[in-house]
Amino acid sequence: MQIDLQIPIEIIERYKADLLLRGTHVSNEELTQAIFYSLAYRISTLEDAVRNLNNNINRIVESRNL
């Protein structure tokens, strides 16, 4: 499955400006890819957190049903 997402140019330009102040030049494509990798990591850790929460809730329910 492919999802077509776009990062607003204002966000890209803000990060590019910050990086330029630090002496680093990046292309829009490089920065967009870095943002998407960061978002993908955040989503996967959120999915893990929700899965762990569900497991913990199930354990509580099971222990009370004993």
Keyword list:
66 residues; mainly alpha
Can you walk me through this structure?
It is a single chain. With 66 residues, the chain is mainly α. The chain has one domain (9-64). The protein contains two helices and no strands. It has helices spanning 9-21, 28-64. The mean pLDDT is 88.
Itemize the secondary structure elements and their pairings.
Elements lengths: L8 H13 L6 H37 L2
How many strands appear in the DSSP assignment?
A: 0
Describe the biggest sheet? none
Amount of beta strand = under 5%
Mean pLDDT: 88
> Could you name the ranges where pLDDT drops below 50 across 5 or more consecutive residues?
none
Straight-line distance between termini: 42 Å
Q: Strand pairing plus helix content: what structural class?
A: mainly alpha
- Please give the radius of gyration in angstroms: 20 Å
Number of helices: 2
Oligomer: single chain
State the share of residues found in helices, binned by percent. over 70%
Count of discrete structural domains: 1
- What is the succession of H and E elements? HH
Shape: elongated
Quick recap of the structure?
The chain has 66 residues and is an all-alpha fold. The chain contains 2 helices and no strands.
